[in-house]
Amino acid sequence: xxxxxxxxxxxxxxxxxxxxxxxxxxxxxxxxxxxxxxxxxxxxxxxxxxxxxxxxxxxxxxxxxxxxxxxxxxxxxxxxxxxxxxxxxxxxxxxxxxxxxxxxxxxxxxxxxxxxxxxxxxxxxxxxxxxxxxxxxxxxxxxxxxxxxxxxxxxxxxxxxxxxxxxxxxxxxxxxxxxxxxxxxxxxxxxxxxxxxxxxxxxxxxxxxxxxxxxxxxxxxxxxxxxxxxxxxxxxxxxxxxxxxxxxxxxxxxxxxxxxxxxxxxxxxxxxxxxxxxxxxxxxxxxxxxxxxxxxxxxxxxxxxxxxxxxxxxxxxxxxxxxxxxxxxxxxxxxxxxxxxxxxxxxxxxxxxxxxxxxxxxxxxxxxxxxxxxxxxxxxxxxxxxxxxxxxxxxxxxxxxxxxxxxxxxxxxxxxxxxxxxxxxxxxxxxxxxxxxxxxxxxxxxxxxxxxxxxxxxxxxxxxxxxxxxxxxxxxxxxxxxxxxxxxxxxxxxxxxxxxxxxxxxxxxxxxxxxxxxxxxxxxxxxxxxxxxxxxxxxxxxxxxxxxxxxxxxxxxxxxxxxxxxxxxxxxxxxxxxxxxxxxxxxxxxxxxxxxxxxxxxxxxxxxxxxxxxxxxxxxxxxxxxxxxxxxxxxxxxxxxxxxxxxxxxxxxxxxxxxxxxxxxxxxxxxxxxxxxxxxxxxxxxxxxxxxxxxxxxxxxxxx
Amino acid sequence: xxxxxxxxxxxxxxxxxxxxxxxxxxxxxxxxxxxxxxxxxxxxxxxxxxxxxxxxxxxxxxxxxxxxxxxxxxxxxxxxxxxxxxxxxxxxxxxxxxxxxxxxxxxxxxxxxxxxxxxxxxxxxxxxxxxxxxxxxxxxxxxxxxxxxxxxxxxxxxxxxxxxxxxxxxxxxxxxxxxxxxxxxxxxxxxxxxxxxxxxxxxxxxxxxxxxxxxxxxxxxxxxxxxxxxxxxxxxxxxxxxxxxxxxxxxxxxxxxxxxxxxxxxxxxxxxxxxxxxxxxxxxxxxxxxxxxxxxxxxxxxxxxxxxxxxxxxxxxxxxxxxxxxxxx
Lengths: 704, 329
Hints:
Chain B: Residues 1-222 form the FAD-binding PCMH-type domain. The structure holds two protein chains of two kinds. Chain A folds into three domains: 13-20 and 435-549, Aldehyde oxidase/xanthine dehydrogenase, molybdopterin binding domain (Aldehyde Oxidoreductase, domain 4, 2-Layer Sandwich); 31-126 and 180-230 and 235-268, Aldehyde oxidase/xanthine dehydrogenase, a/b hammerhead (Aldehyde Oxidoreductase, domain 3, Alpha-Beta Complex), CATH 3.90.1170.50; 150-174 and 271-432 and 556-699, 2-Layer Sandwich (Aldehyde Oxidoreductase, domain 4). Chain A is 24% helix and 25% strand. In chain A, the strands form seven sheets. Chain A has a seven-stranded mixed β-sheet, sandwiched between helices. Chain A has a five-stranded mixed β-sheet with strand order 7-15-14-13-8. In chain A, strands 18-19-24-25-28 form a five-stranded mixed β-sheet, with helices on both faces. In chain A, strand 24 (560-572) and strand 25 form a beta hairpin. The longest helix of chain A has 22 residues, at 501-522. The radius of gyration of chain A is 26 Å and the shape is globular. Chain B is built from 13 helices and twelve strands. A five-stranded antiparallel β-sheet of chain B has the order 4-5-8-6-7. A four-stranded antiparallel β-sheet of chain B has the order 9-10-11-12, sandwiched between helices. The A-B interface holds A 39, 41, 59, 109, 112-113, 116, 261, 263-264, 574-577, 579, 614-615, 619-624, 628-631, 633-634, 636, 638-642, 694, 696-698, 701-703 and B 1-3, 40, 117, 119-120, 122-125, 127, 139, 142-144, 146, 231-239, 241, 306, 308-309, 312-313, 316-317, 319-320.
């Protein structure tokens, strides 16, 4: 019975749409109390005094915690902590919204209302929040412990030798994850044992990090997470509200739930940092790239060390023997940025792929032809072959589906009624992240199969994909498989970040299922006998096997997922509002386990990219030192009316180098390429090259 | 939000009496009042729910005009056959507002009483904002002013009014019927909202103890030939960068009796009186003349640091709206 590669409905879909699915905020414990964070209203300084006498008197209030009585935490590195500045450990304030007190009440509304009554007196210091105005303060700092500058070949020499050289500076905005579900953490102590119900991207990482902060053993902590209402990176690392819930529940002696408001989500768990990226490309007259430079300035934080490695993809995407990539960070009085869909290439390829479009027009070459001219099966930055790379088929199939012209009409010449119409395309690449994973698969006499691994479902379809993998190996219907995830008591599973779960946890489940068949062989099950029948005959309630998968330390291959994205955009010739008219995305991510969920995920990524290109921008007020609009009325994401026909196809393959499932990651890939494809289509439609996302009407009306 | 009482009124007299109590506030659809409660912008001790008051939700049209009860839902008015036929700008403005769910709840009276969407005013925590806490100043004045007004603002406040349908009403010479224990009075929609002024905190001429009972729109050939154009970055569920309501008689290609009102440019729906006068007798086919006429009203625009684009966008939008109403869409 084939399960892998079959379009399969989400096994948890019905529970989600009927409201039966229990999210963290739905779970109530006996004696539950509610904590509410009081955030700093200043961006830098010290807390001089916190007067909570009025709050303490308010109805239902049990206690108000400040840095004076907050338990001390052990220091954490970032990652795994989101900020290195841990909550309420001293009187220092490094950014607006930073927790300075927590009100604990019998109900959430009481806590929230009492929080308004807490009066904090500050000693204010000068602060910096303006990234664009302080680029000269950019610092050389490591990215994830790695050097910020890398180079291969001799880009400076070859930059001089180009027949054509283009160079320009591109900007992307601060963007927030704004998942539907604001983060919720419920902490309960049973003696020396802590149970956390938490909406997170990594139960195991949360367990280990919270234990470290509290100075207890990971074995004393259980983290459970059945569903997550969207995350997109904001709950990949561990943030203040989780540490506060864990520590204060112990102090108060009752289960404590800490729920973030929508406004608090804008300062509580990171954001995608703004960037200013300069890309220079030198090419021969026939379009061969001679040299590439990608120099990036990133917004960063004094409360942590995040530097977004936006240039990494640029080194590897094309056949260019000489490339240099640098990253510098401007540390500001804002919370630490963090990965957000789509990180790394999702930001950097905006610059690189608009620059490629500029080069194509400079050369008088079809932008698709320029990409093909620089196609490479070798990752020249790392001097090793790509594993399975079928980007060429992505380009051609995408061009066919889209109707990409052999010769592009000149910019600003296509019109449909009052709209100027244009076409744009871009390449998508995303490196493949892999993690060690373990799983257990159990066959029960009832005929059901139980799959257990300590990963979690954040909306991408993990419950379903893991069921498919087990069903394929064990030759049972997917409907017979129960997937149990989101619990630290399970075998170690991976974090749901960087598009790694299907590949990593799926490989472990596959191994466990195969081991289970071996065990059945050992106990004397003949071929052809069902697992349930064998258990009945042997009088066994169940039979289990564990499986583990560990990627090799250093692959001989460069592992990337790829795509080609084509967009048609209309720009009203007077009103200067760009609208996406249609999108085609064709992707190569090895084996696609569940084409239905995968298509959904890529469609969502493309919509995410429409937001990046045309809408999403978190404005700051630099007098107050805060993100200005901390809500979904002020932070625009696309609605259905912004979303045109989107066609998604996969070039199905099997990447044996990536892992035994042949699959690579897709979750981040959908949000890559689309931003540049739209920007390029806007240029082709209007003749106006906008180098700053999101593209706004003022870019066309003489004011930026 | 803090605790509050709810009283359900079943008659106008009840409602007026309850509203006169200190700390009381009317609630109809609740789509806006709940926002204020949650952000701590208001803290009433009593909410007076008027949804059960009979007769307040009627929509009546006859040869002389249209009367819309204050409790009529936005979606019902938008879908009303005679509104669509004789006052298309009203229906169009409503359908471009909010979301279907909100339109099903939100009342027409409440729509006019929306307060600004200025991010400083709507902040999760009180920021310096004269509209939020009197006398604290205007953060937007020297801050992020992209959304700010270009007409009629003062240093006291530079925010805009968010209603779409109020712009259509202003363009159609509507009036608002106000009821209090003292009786009924009628004010022109154009005079209902106030531009910001240090001397008063109010955003409308509505007095304490007074409520909107109905909105009147006079019938006219111009109203039948009206349209509403809304310009926004997001295609739906978003407030206007700028919007235009226009109404005029199309006299064989010549504009007669033009009325133009704009949204997104002032603290109230903003009539472009100079442009209206200049458009009189202009040929709908003459794009350059349309633009010249409309530019007349933008001479008085006063710009901030990030909202200069609203002038060009506003002029173009107004030209487009006239072209659409003139059958040149």
